[in-house]
Amino acid sequence: MPELLSGADEETPAVARPAAGVSSRSPGAGFAAVGRWARSHALALTGTPLAAIVLFTLYLHQARTAPLNGDGAGNALQAWDMLHGNLLLSHWSVSDVSFYFTELPEYMLVEAVHGLNGDVVHIAAALTYTLAVLLACWLARGRARGAEAAVRVLIVLVVMLAAPARGTGVVIELDSPDHFGTAVPLLVFFLALERLPRRRFTPVLLFLLLVWAGSSDTTAIFLGGGALAVICATRLWQGKGRRRYEASLLAVAVLAAGVAIEVPRVIARLGGFTMHRPDMAFNAAADMPNAVWQSVSAFLELFGANFFGLSVAGPSSGGAGVPGETVFALLHLFGAGLVVAALIKTVRRLRDGGREDAGGDGTGGVGSGGDEGGGTGRDRIAELLTVGILLNLAALVFSTQYRGWAREIAAVLPLAAVVAARVLAGRMTHRKHVALLGAFATVFAAVLAYHATGPSQPPYAHRVEAWLKQHGYTSGIGGYWTSHSITVGSGGAIQVSPVNTGPAGIQAYDWESKSTWYDPRQRSANFLVVDLANPSALQYARPQQAIKQFGPPARVVPIGGWEVMIWDKNLLADLPGSN
């Protein structure tokens, strides 16, 4: 972080070439040069890791304020299976997003060190958010130096530092893999796009980075490949830039999108996991007003600024929120406002087609490794990010697949912070602006520390897990949100496989599950966990339905809002196959 603030060069200064007839410098001289560089960057070399450790610790404590749920637990089980040799996830049926090359390897690393337990999801989420903050600061800084570099980093911190609001914000940005983690490979992609020189290998590397992100989460195709295709196609149409290189980047975007979509199918043909196809359609015209307002709410939620339904002077809207959280949300409107202003300004620059703007950034040419836009006020990286963000927001508004859920645009947060920093910082280097940004960053650091002190929540259905462990029950079935949470929370000592209601009754659920779990020749299950406290959870299994299908249970044990139904037989023998 100090290096990012100072604007120091990232690379070791090159050693001067010896004059003709003079012998090469000794190895000792080279070591001396490295030593001088290390001493000059001592603050950065020590401060950045220290900042990362502090941020990770705070985000970890905040992540623990949300209980482990079925989604994250299912991903933890997939990573655990991969760690134990099932690298292709054979026999697995995942959701409509695999996270196979992105967050699942991260989960594997966490589990290799920490084992399988309810904290895996929290640790990985804290790591992901910390990485996103640091990478966003790096990309935002670009080639700026001095005061502008510091202002850019401050803007990123104002937007991101305490963005995960208590409750929903934590679930969106500090919980299960759910699109936010896709921001990390996207930030790496845009860093490579800006930093790499124009060489033959550059399009190949960019292609691989896009496939890496897009094959794990198709959101990356909007935010990365889609943006690159639109910008490059526009520049080719306008006759700008180096046509061959722009055409190669356009080809990278198109080919990477096609390959990314095909990769999961290839894995399935090789005997690996199968993935559900997303059920997408346009919203009906009558639903658009509601979709627009849901999207506004979701956009504000990303920045911790969603004040809708929060209390003002007392409980309101069913008691949602407390006055303190309302104040925090209103403060975060400042960061959201910076982002909106930057997006509008960038769209105007795109509309004007490169008209000179002395107040612009002028850095970050597309894959140029240099200042392609110097003197024009154009920041190609900011333009790419803006187009990607707008594509993702358009999908949120118009698609039934997104349904206005903030998690579907979670990767927008760090990318939007970068846009705000790169576009606005040049006009905010005055002392009063720096003081204002510093004050907001300080306040949000305090908000983050406050949120990190919240009480940790145990895994969902932890009381059921404790009872099962105490009474020696180790294998059963249950609803989706209950089953994986018990399995991971117990460290795999108790295996509860998810079921769902279908035409044939209670049956195997082929969503984030493994088909071998339901084979009565390989496993026995003698209890069913039913969540009675959550009406929507009854879609997975109802007590009356279970009695009709499996017969009267030998024992029924109520545990809080759950009910454990126990039989003296293997329920898998009477369980139809997955739907």
From TrEMBL:
The chain crosses the membrane at residues 42-60, 120-140, 149-167, 204-237, 249-270, 326-344, 381-399, 405-425, 434-453. Keywords: Membrane, Transmembrane, Transmembrane helix. Residues 360-373 have a biased composition (Gly residues). Residues 1-26, 354-373 are annotated as: Disordered. It comes from the Bacteria. This is Uncharacterized protein. It comes from Actinocrinis puniceicyclus. The lineage of its organism: Bacteria, Bacillati, Actinomycetota, Actinomycetes, Catenulisporales.
